Amino acid sequence: MILNPILRNGFNQVLVNYHNLLWGNPPINEVDFIDKTVQSFCNLNLNVQNQKLTTRAVKIHPTPQVRYYPNGFQNQIPNIRIEMGDILYIFKHRVNGNLVTRRGMVVQVKYTMEDRLRWHIDIDQFRFLCNWHPFHIVSPQIPGNYTVHPRTNSWSMYGFIGPNAMNYPVYYSANRIRNHRGGIPAGDAFTYWILPYYSWDTDTSFFMKLIQGYLGENLISNNNIAQFVNQLYRYMQWLPDPPEDPQWNGESIKGEKGLGIIEFTLEGDFDLEE
């Protein structure tokens, strides 16, 4: 996707401001990081010639808890309850009012106060984010059973943060971590040391690739995930992909555990790059 250089520079400045917020007042925990991220990407509006980038963001309460079934819905034992994630990113691209791209990803935030680049990862949650076994949402009580079958590794991401370990988040997919570890480790949890190189996973390039439509699961072609994401929207009384109304019909909840939803919408008649 070819972005107007002025639009790209404008979004880069948004990222600089986001970084300055994190550097000047480092998050004290995962909840604080979610609040600062929602704050930074709330109601952005960049309009350059025939291209427009807007955002809307809010944190909903409570944090979605899911119960998943490693052996499928028919065999209810064993079943495991875990937190689904901390942030849901949605990217949309519209051309002449028509939705041509819609991508999404779930991010589980991991926080450390240590100086070292290592984080504690729960095995039950890690297994879910790698495999996405059949599940349903138990808190809040949202009806329906889901088997999403993600096709893209960047549907399930980990965002590693820590004011002593680094100045900005680093994002790795759950499957990248699994491949690096040679599979899902045994036990209840494991300590993960991020790789010595960051590549595109650093915060700036992560968001730039996100708004160019390179990251996330394609919700247009994956109807299972689209239905799941739409159900989250409906629960909050938001219609999926409204073409108008740039404001969320909800209030941000600061200082409490919750799910941050951040949506980027890019409008313009420019070409998509393969």
Structural class by sheet pairing and helices: alpha+beta
Please state roughly what percent of the residues sit in beta strands, choosing from under 5%, 5-15%, 15-25%, 25-35%, 35-45% or over 45%: 25-35%
* Unreliable parts: 243-250
Which outline best applies? Answer: globular
Mean pLDDT: 85
Kindly state the number of beta strands: 14
Q: How helical, in percent, are the residues?
A: 25-40%
> Whole-number radius of gyration?
18 Å
Main beta sheet: 8 strands, mixed
Gap between N and C termini:
8 Å
Number of helices: 6
Helix-strand sequence: HHEEEEEEEHEEEEHEHEHE
- Give the tally of structural domains: 1
Characterize the structure shown.
With 274 residues, this protein is of the alpha+beta class. The protein has one domain. The protein is built from six helices and 14 strands. It has helices at 5-24, 30-40, 123-131, 174-181, 203-211, 223-235, and strands spanning 45-48, 51-60, 65-68, 80-83, 87-95, 98-111, 118-122, 135-139, 142-146, 156-161, 170-173, 189-193, 217-218, 259-267. The strands form three sheets. Strands 1, 2, 5, 6, 10, 11, 13 and 14 form an eight-stranded mixed β-sheet that branches. Strand 8 and strand 9 (142-146) form a beta hairpin. Helix 1 (5-24) packs antiparallel against helix 2 and helix 1 (5-24) runs antiparallel to helix 5. The longest helix is centred in the first third of the chain and has 20 residues, at 5-24. The chain starts with a helix and ends in a 7-residue tail after the last strand. The model is unreliable at 243-250 (pLDDT under 50).
